[in-house]
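Thread title: Can someone regenerate the structure for this chain?

I was given the following input by a collaborator and told the matching structure tokens would be attached. They weren't. Posting the sequence so someone can regenerate them.
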Amino acid sequence: MSTYRNFTVETDADGIALVTWDMPDKSMNVFTVEVMDELETILRETVADAAVKGIVFTSGKSSFSGGADLTMIRGMFSMLAEEKARDPAAAAQKLFDVAGRMTGLFRRIETCGKPWVSAINGTCMGGAFELSLACHGRVVASGKSVKLALPEVKVGIFPGAGGTQRVPRLANAQDALQMMTTGQSLTPQRAKAMGLIHQVVEPDQLIETARQMIRDGLKPVAPWDEKGFKAPGGGVWTPAAAQLFPAAPAILRRETSGNYPAALAILKCVYEGLQLPFDTALKVEQRYFTQVLQTTEAFSMIRSLFISMQELGKGARRPQGVEKTELKKVGVVGAGFMGASIAYVTAAAGIPVVLIDQTQEAADKGKAVSEKLVAESATKGRLTKEEGAALLALITPTPDYSALSDADLVIEAVFEDRAVKKAVIEQIEAVIAPTTIFASNTSTLPISGLAENSKRPEQFIGVHFFSPVEKMMLTEVILGKQTGDRALAVALDFVARIRKTPIVVNDTRGFFVNRCVFRYINEAYDMLAEGVPAAMVENAARMSGMPVGPLSLNDEVAVDLSQKIMKASIADLGASSVKPGHMALIDKLVNDLDRRGRKNGKGFYDYPPKPARKSLWPGLKDLYPQKNPADVDIGVLKQRFLVTIALEAARTVEEGIVTDPREADVGSILGFGFAPYTGGTLSYIDGMGVKTFVALSEKLAAAYGDHFAPTPLLMDMAAKGETFYSRFDPYGEGRKAA
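Best answer:
Regenerated them for you:
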């Protein structure tokens, strides 16, 4: 046998070769060109070696594999761009051939004449699960951390290495479509119930069970290669399929509004493929995969949701030359819901945390939030009783500020009031060590202004969490005018430790996410004032790709909070900073009608007692003369929502608030769900072309107001034929690519 960099191969006395995938210098196995080359050699040599009777394929790491490596994905898109520049006609064929390499390799494993068993010992995603599906046997270790999935649709593509053909030939078509069009993760037990794997065993029995399958005479033939094979449920031409397949596109359109080409391609692959011989079906899949790879949606989603998210998560914006901080203790001041939740995620990452409030009772109440979250996780099987107890033991509630004296990082999460924060900053700085970094969790107040209350503004930084903290994956790290590199490095080390994705922005009112969010909400106010029925406002927003309508979102953040923010803007920036009509609408809702949002059971929606569902408040239609719905162009409403948010993102770049386009894109998707199929706010502009976007903005400005007018930066970029990713190249001089 040959020597491999990424694999070891050991053959036992029974002639069973154990192929162990264990990539050096990587925490998780991923598919690279080198891995593919080595796997092809292993296949060739094990087939040629008469002493090898079968192959067990497993991982030497705690996780099996996360799928494809980002460099391989990026290389595929680079190759496509280069080929299109040279020979557009040949580019698609080249992409078709490249995309089919993994498909061909897995099919050769499946038809090699010797049994392969995949012994899955941890998370198994994407191409790694497709490889496992091509093996003749599949054994999975039990455990709550083991997840099996084909999540490609979440990044704009689909399982294109045989996944759309093998899954519906193992599981019934409805379960197969549900799994692949949502990208949902399966537990080992669920995967077995679906028919995707053969056995679930204790981890220490995994390899022996896989070997025993081969000893017991496992046939080296896939079910679909046997004569007379029929898919579970009978395939396409059955009464059940006659109900499923006509309804599936309608259900998909209801859920996605037609915004995700990859999801529709999955339906086509399954429907067409089940009517064809397997090898022909693989070609159909390869054809659709090639088409989807060439869409703007696939390019933008992969760049933002796969490549950029990984790069930012690995510290792409971390200052070079600053030693990593191993956080031994974190302080959180303010045991309200946000502070308590920050304490929970800190303890969940294994960091001891002191939770401070004015009284012991208030601090204990904050810890109770963690106790409730632990109980919920235990009920769902995510935490054992012992793990929950260990987590809670890391949280120390107290009113004693001196407990912060040895903290590496202190996060202030008190009431959003300058005077309150000033007093807290002074109390904290009186007791913390000279090296401690101070972070404010303010959501709207500029960091530089708060830092004026600090004796060491170079160690003062903003770390803005989003609610609910335990679920939201984004954190905004805000640089004040004097924030130093070490403060930034420590903040990013902390965010990485609690496994969230950071974006780094410069200081401004509302930072990046909230500025964009309020543009979204403000556009809804304008539409209501124009007489657009509230239901059309909400539905158009969701059809544009937003996860929740702007009126519903406003209720969640609180209508009276919008009122406070508007009043603060007027006080600080003048009356022209808020539209009078917007102020009048919110004043009427809050002052006259006491409609403050979900928190008091009435806002733009009514919130009846459960199990009844919320519904739009009927009184909204009486606030303004209503238009006939037939006279409202739903397509224009969708454009207005996306364009107004994208314009605000462009303004933050022009003002130097956001300096890296990756952060605007990832931040907009993770922060408030900006239409993921676009790849984010700046990718939305780049995707249609800046020149086209400018023309659209000018058209909307003429009809709906100057807030749609393109910025000078956009005008300049349009004239020069630039994109955000070319003009503000995140990999250019001074940037650190992960």
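Confidence is low (pLDDT under 50) at residues 733-738.
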